[in-house]
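We were asked to recover a plausible sequence for a given structure. The inputs and outputs are reproduced exactly as logged, with field labels preserved.

PROBLEM: sequence recovery
POSITIONS: 67
GIVEN STRUCTURE:
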């Protein structure tokens, strides 16, 4: 996971099963605000499967020794 703060812009890159969230104080609501900075890229998600297929990739089930 890498997060870069550049003045008013936050850049986030993740690899593997890492996640990034930003915790900030929300004065209007008087509490902590949690903002996700990364997203899952699982091929079981329709949007991700479509993206993989559009670039010529494939999405298959991995079968292990137990079927």
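RECOVERED SEQUENCE:
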């Amino acid at each position: 996971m890498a997060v870069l703060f550049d003045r008013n812009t936050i850049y986030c890159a993740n690899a593997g099963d890492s996640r990034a969230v930003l915790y900030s104080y929300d004065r209007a609501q008087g509490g902590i605000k949690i903002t996700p900075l990364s997203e899952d890229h699982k091929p079981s998600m329709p949007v991700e499967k479509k993206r993989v297929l559009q670039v010529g990739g494939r999405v298959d089930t991995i079968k292990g020794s137990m079927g």
